[in-house]
Amino acid sequence: MRGISVGCRTRVTLLAASLAGICCLLIGTQAQSAPQEPAKPDDAASRDLKPVHPAETAPTMAVDIPRSYALVIGVAHYPNLPVSAQLQFAVRDADEMYTTLISPEGGQFPPEHVHKLVDGQVTLANLRRELEQWLPSVTQPNDRVMIYFAGHGFISNGKAFLAPYDIDLKNIAPTAYPMSTLGEVVGRAIKGKWKVLITDACHSGAITPEDDPAALNRNLLDLHSSLLSLTASRDREQSFESADWGGGHGIFTYYVVQGLHGAADTNGDGVVTADELSEYVHTNVKQATSGRQNPTSERGSFDPNMILAYNPTMAKGPQLQAPKFGSLIIQANMDGIEVWVDGKSVGVVSKTQSLRLPGLLPGTHTIKGVHQGYEPDGPRDEQVYPGQDSTVTLHVMIPRVRNKAAVDLLDKGIEAYQNGSQESYQKAADLFQQAIAIDPKYSTAYVYLGRVEGALYEDDKANAAFKKAIEIDPDYMDARSSYAAVLLDEGALDEAVRQLDVVTRRNQDDATAWYLMSQAYARKSSFEQGRDAAQKAVKLAAANGEAHFWLATCLRHLNQFAAAEQEYKAYLQLSDYDSGKAGKVSYYLLGYTLGVGKKRRAAQADIWRELRGEANLGICDCEALQKNFAAALPYCQKALTYTPQDLWANYRLGTIYIEESNQNASPALLSAARTHFQQVVAINPDTEEAARARQYISRIDVALASPP
Hints:
Layout: H1 54-57, E1 68-74, H2 90-102, E2 114-118, H3 124-138, E3 144-150, E4 153-156, E5 159-162, H4 172-175, E6 177-178, H5 179-189, E7 194-199, H6 213-221, E8 228-231, E9 241-242, E10 249-250, H7 251-263, E11 271-273, H8 274-288, E12 296-298, E13 307-310, E14 326-332, E15 337-341, E16 344-349, E17 355-360, E18 363-370, E19 377-384, E20 389-394, H9 404-417, H10 422-438, H11 443-455, H12 459-472, H13 477-490, H14 493-506, H15 511-523, H16 527-540, H17 545-557, H18 561-574, H19 582-593, H20 604-625, H21 629-642, H22 647-664, H23 667-683, H24 688-705
Parallel strand pairs: 1-2, 1-3, 3-7, 7-8, 14-20
Antiparallel strand pairs: 4-5, 5-6, 8-12, 9-10, 11-13, 14-17, 15-16, 15-18, 18-19
Helix pairs in contact: 2-7, 3-5, 7-8, 9-10, 9-11, 10-11, 11-12, 11-13, 12-13, 13-14, 13-15, 14-15, 15-16, 15-17, 16-17, 17-18, 17-20, 18-20, 20-21, 21-22, 22-23, 23-24
């Protein structure tokens, strides 16, 4: 009997900026085309993640935006710098840039193509990895590339550096990132037809003896001739950050964000070009600082009409002359009012702190103030006048009073919903609709209606219900999380990430939102982002088993096998129904009561079996990939007790039996391998796994027929 050669490779699951220095970079990004497909493992046996929803990867657009990539970085806290050198708003700037770039009314970047690092994540090692490995590995010659850095910049021995989180001022050169290296990397290693370098260097005084704004700005402008370079200030000028701009931003960055959202679109075609953004930012920053700060641009060899953002809602036709921008000063009668301008959330205002929104195009703007549980103020039209501040006071003061009959219907509907059968779901939907008929602004009823319609596989109805709940109460974060869960079920992963980004920015401690975010990124094969989100979820809610599951999945694909196994085992323990410990499964039941998690409550038992099967299979894969075939075997066998028709589990088990047979010369193991390969063919004869399974079967038959 002859041994049979078998490959052992990675499997991809179907579950698949005190005013001290700020240095902000932005480099033109990658586009809205379909995300680059991850490299296939060289064992054709690996299985692809669930494909991205077609509507997300190929939107209908009036302009041709190339494929886009971005790196967004913000460092506010430097552990090795004095208190006077700490920054206030660098992380917030980075968060706002990320949201702007992934917005369909902004940069239109696929979320998984935008990497964001803040504070402790911005180590020198991570900075090098993102700039010198990730971006060069994913970009192509026709791409758009954007890099944004909010933090400190320093001069040492006449050379300029970006300051990562772990910089040592006593040893700058080895602990900071050289501007010269940045220029070489961006100009040569990172590919793309459109690249933009935007820098915001803030100086309230020298931090090191050599600090020189002029030298720093010259270095930033002269990085490479192939870049559009826009700096925050001219030689020897300061650049500023302040709480007076949009609730707290670097002033330069505030106008960059406003411009990318469409304010820089002075010709009204919906497109923000490099020239338009440069002119908008220069005009507004100069005006806002009374001429103390003057952004400067250097275009190199690039097309001034390169597209930096596209907001189709801003396409209003050409204007006869360039406008002089105005400002809105938003005041409120109560704390915690979320302000919306032209359909975009622009911040939260309180009784004691107004919200200043400069840099707005003159004309009519739609304003609305919302606070969950209250009738909104607006939407209403307010005028912005050229060169003037216009004060708007929001009065949110009427609590919503629920009709008792509507409340009773909601309670009965929730009771029916929790019963879990299709008949109960239909009854619950009826009751929620009756409650809405009595109280059309009952956002909670809409949320539960969305959840039950999702449980009934009525995706369009579920989406409509969640959208209505969010329309009534835009600050209803549970509605956004539940909506994101249904979007995940549909495969609309980009919009799910956008909804969850709103939630996590409003509440960094929302474990459910982080867990759902981890699932979205894992299914988009963006495993580092998925890992980071899952780690936050696990830290916030260690009993959420599925957060451990998605963390394990991401770690496995990052080849961190021991850590992945540990997380898979944590999931298995937390989801052990047979243990008799109800607390172990409370996360699971709670998740589905909230309408979150994988697919539908209607198939809760099936989902439980599927995930437990996937977890066991994940452990099996981790061991097999380390060639620990004996250790892998029982986990694959266990996986099949949960999901006997899982094609990959059968295929993987077949290959393990072959490896064990090669060690033990066992015909019985070869026969067992043959059985599982036959099962692969029976499950889906048209897959690559099935084609290879047939080849294995032929080889096994030859081996079994050969004399010992």
